[in-house]
Design goal:
- The structure is a single chain.
- With about 60 residues, the chain is mostly helical.
- The protein has one domain.
- Helix content is about 65%, strand content about 0%.
- The protein contains four helices and no strands.
- Helix 1 runs parallel beside helix 3.
- The chain starts with 8 loop residues before the first helix and ends with a helix.
Length: about 60
């Protein structure tokens, strides 16, 4: 989607030790829903990271 403009979710992901493959998975999933709205895309990626729901998937590996 390009450079970050609204929410620095990559910084948050790094601080929360989100594995890169999980971040990419979240980005792809959110992008499907918000193709043309960068702000909503970044906001929802950030919310998904902060929810820690991704840890469930991470623990299964």
């Amino acid at each position: 989607m390009g450079k970050i403009e609204y929410f620095d979710y990559k910084k948050v992901a790094k601080e929360m030790n989100v594995p890169r493959y999980i971040l990419k998975k979240i980005e792809r999933e959110v992008q499907k829903e918000f193709l043309n709205d960068k702000m909503m895309y970044e906001l929802h990626v950030l919310r998904a990271i902060r929810s820690k729901y991704w840890q469930k998937d991470y623990r299964l590996r």
